[in-house]
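PROTEIN DESIGN WORKSHEET
SECTION A - STRUCTURE
LENGTH: 760
TOKENS:
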């Protein structure tokens, strides 16, 4: 059971974090908006559920994983700031990102155009790539954990389920959200970074279609569907989407992890390659049923958000505020935030795409576009000649019994070979037409149909002279031999020889080109930025290594142009918060922050930085800061009783400034002209501070009363009230108590001096 929110709202955790309001509630924790009272900033505090905090094993793993997540510093990952425990409250402090979740965007907008879907998924994959490279996996990628700030920046949140990649697990507990869970997690097999990529594929499917690929009445049914079925291509729900998008989703969401991208960085390269190659028409394709197209979109803006768990009134936007035909402000900001990145190359080992040069005659599929028949329901069928079955390469899909994908019109299962496309028999395929001579000809070809059965007239060779006929046969035989020899040379020794592309990765460009030339291959060079490979070395090839190609086919060499460099901003003189914001905004990270005393720079501001401004560094590189601690404090010397000149010299030597008060004071203990008092009187004060000195004008002179003949008690009282010290000397035991002598007697004496009384 979760804690009652009212118990924590208004409470200060660990004498630092003041809980302001509840933001979201989940099965493992509750997230609150809080104020960091030490740094005066808003943070998100994630409080673990009671049933988890009672488990010592969970607490131990929670501490380890919190430390690991705190090391991750990336613009597209929510920063973990602190962790701790206060009484029975175990909490994690994270960066607070004001804005909306991707779930709220989907609830409000339904499905998105490919342009906006790719723009939103790009920073998600980039953040996961940074986590994977740091040795962390997320294991709970879903729309609720993708935050879109008011400034359009996209961040991946909630690394509460992360686990060290180097510590594989076969846990029988399903961690993560079932709708996005990878099959190996359901089966209890070891998980790694590719499990996150499966969830990314499901998320991208939902962005493009507005629906999750699998739904059911129970979590078990959904989990079983992930194991027993394959994620269908988005174009089955949204006709008109590019085949590249189908292929991208199926690549990420492959049931076998070995068939997915090797890591998030490889997926990011392919995603950006697709973005750069798709046309504006493909990127803006919506298809029937898109918001504003007359078909209701998935979700309801009035529904309660799965992230916050609050009422619909908590949503800061309404249906009246959004443009039904255009993207929401959050999507538009996210799509335009990062427009300067360098497109990365596509992976060369991708399967063939429908719609490209997949035909045996080598012509692009668009050449036969007129042969496709568009149906009223938006489906497109490939018309196969004479009712022959047409195989679609590169798409492992066929209609077969199996679990029903959410929103699909048929059942889908993964086949082992090419898919069987829908076929239609040509209405004129079997029609025979008699020619004038009674010969039967082929049916007329459809206009523009280069691969169908065209009209080919029957040619008859008239019987002639036998020698002429024999010569013609000889010519034909010679031609056949020449053609056969030419083909044998072309495919046996010439440009048509099949060779395997050599593995030239990590070699220099010159060495790679020489390896290709040795095999008779020609290479083209494409330079791309790479964070790991040395400049001038080959990163990959297209086609991939060991792929069999003909010698006339070109090989593209992807050569490293070095990492993408970012200029270090100048932050000297700024506060630590301002410096951190400027550094992270430049795609860099804050390194070591140390303190130093400074006589010129105010406390809390940056004194120096390393590297210096405008230095070019890789993304994520650390910038070390030295922050002022203010002026260095010094000890204040005790100057009481010193002469004015002595006091001034001692303060100067200590780095302090002397200020002498114009008025002097009486002092019974300090001689005239010496220091009677000072402020401050001791301790430490910043160097250069002022010490105020008050000088003595000696003791006050007081009239001494004549007390001969008075009783000793009365004499003592009068002398003490006048400011004197009294010394009594008894004669004959002082039996009568009468003062018979005093010293001094009459006149004046310094205040505080001693008067001696002789008593009999």
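SECTION B - SEQUENCE
RESIDUE ASSIGNMENT:
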């Amino acid at each position: 059971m979760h804690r009652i929110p009212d118990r924590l709202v208004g409470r200060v955790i660990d004498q630092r974090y003041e809980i302001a309001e509840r933001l979201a509630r989940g099965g493992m924790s509750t997230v609150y908006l809080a104020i960091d009272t030490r740094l005066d900033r808003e943070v998100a505090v994630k409080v673990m559920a009671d049933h988890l905090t009672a488990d010592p094993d969970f607490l131990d793993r929670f501490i380890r994983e919190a430390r690991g997540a705190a090391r991750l510093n990336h613009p597209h990952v929510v920063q973990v700031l602190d962790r701790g425990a206060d009484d029975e409250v175990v909490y994690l402090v994270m960066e607070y990102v004001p804005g909306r979740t991707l779930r709220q965007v989907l609830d409000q907008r339904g499905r998105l155009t490919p342009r906006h879907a790719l723009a939103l998924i790009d920073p998600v994959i980039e953040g996961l790539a940074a986590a994977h490279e740091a040795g962390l996996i997320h294991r709970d990628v879903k729309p609720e954990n993708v935050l879109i700030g008011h400034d359009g920046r996209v961040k991946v949140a909630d690394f509460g389920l992360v686990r060290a990649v180097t510590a594989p697990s076969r846990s029988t507990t399903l961690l993560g959200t079932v709708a996005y869970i990878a099959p190996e997690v359901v089966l209890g097999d070891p998980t790694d970074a590719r499990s996150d990529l499966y969830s990314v594929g499901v998320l991208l499917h939902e962005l493009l279609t507005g629906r999750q690929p699998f739904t059911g009445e129970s979590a078990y049914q959904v989990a079983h569907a992930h194991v027993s079925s394959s994620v269908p291509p988005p174009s089955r729900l949204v006709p008109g989407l590019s085949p590249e998008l189908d292929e991208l989703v199926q690549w990420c969401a492959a049931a076998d992890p070995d068939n997915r991208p090797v890591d998030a960085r490889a997926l990011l390269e392919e995603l950006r390659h697709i973005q750069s190659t798709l046309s504006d028409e493909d990127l803006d394709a919506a298809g029937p049923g898109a918001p504003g197209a007359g078909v209701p979109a998935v979700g309801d803006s009035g529904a309660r958000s799965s992230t916050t768990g609050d009422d619909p009134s908590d949503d800061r936007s309404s249906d009246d505020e959004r443009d039904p035909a255009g993207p929401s402000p959050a999507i538009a900001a996210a799509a335009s935030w990062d427009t300067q990145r360098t497109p990365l190359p596509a992976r060369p080992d991708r399967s063939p795409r429908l719609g490209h040069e997949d035909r045996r005659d080598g012509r692009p599929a668009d050449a036969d576009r007129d042969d496709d028949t568009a149906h009223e329901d938006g489906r497109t069928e490939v018309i196969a000649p004479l009712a022959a079955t047409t195989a679609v390469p590169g798409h492992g899909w066929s209609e077969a019994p199996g679990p029903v994908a959410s929103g699909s019109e048929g059942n889908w299962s993964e086949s082992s070979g090419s898919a069987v496309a829908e076929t239609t028999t040509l209405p004129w395929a079997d029609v025979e037409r008699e020619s004038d001579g009674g010969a039967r000809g082929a049916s007329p070809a459809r206009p523009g149909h280069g691969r169908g059965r065209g009209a080919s007239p029957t040619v008859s060779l008239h019987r002639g002279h036998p020698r002429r006929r024999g010569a013609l046969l000889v010519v034909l035989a010679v031609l056949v031999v020449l053609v056969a020899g030419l083909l044998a040379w072309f495919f046996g020794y010439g440009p048509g020889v099949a060779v395997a592309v050599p593995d030239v990765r990590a070699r220099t460009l010159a060495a790679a080109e020489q390896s290709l030339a040795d095999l008779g291959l020609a290479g083209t060079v494409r330079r791309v930025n790479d964070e790991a490979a040395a400049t001038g070395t080959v990163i990959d090839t297209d086609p991939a290594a060991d792929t069999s190609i003909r010698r006339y086919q070109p090989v593209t060499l992807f050569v490293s142009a070095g990492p993408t460099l970012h200029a270090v901003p100048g932050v000297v003189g700024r506060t630590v918060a301002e410096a951190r914001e400027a550094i992270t905004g430049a795609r860099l990270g804050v390194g070591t922050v140390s303190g130093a005393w400074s006589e010129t720079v105010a406390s809390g501001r940056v004194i120096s930085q390393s590297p210096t401004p405008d230095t070019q560094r890789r993304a994520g590189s650390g910038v070390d800061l030295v922050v002022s601690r203010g002026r260095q404090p010094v000890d204040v010397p005790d100057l009481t009783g010193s002469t004015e000149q002595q006091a001034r010299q001692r303060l100067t030597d200590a780095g302090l400034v002397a200020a002498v008060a114009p008025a002097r004071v009486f002092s019974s203990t300090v001689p005239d002209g010496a220091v009677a008092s000072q402020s401050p009187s001791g301790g430490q004060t910043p160097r250069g501070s002022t010490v105020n000195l008050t000088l003595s004008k000696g003791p006050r002179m007081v009239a001494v009363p004549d007390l001969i003949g008075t009783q000793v008690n009365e004499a003592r009282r009068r002398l003490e009230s006048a400011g004197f010290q009294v010394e009594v000397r008894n004669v004959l035991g002082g039996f009568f108590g009468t003062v018979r002598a005093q010293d001094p007697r009459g006149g004046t004496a310094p205040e505080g001096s001693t008067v001696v009384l002789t008593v009999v």
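SECTION C - NOTES
Residues 1-5, 161-175, 288-331, 333-464 have pLDDT under 50 and may be disordered.
The first strand starts at residue 12 and ends at 13.
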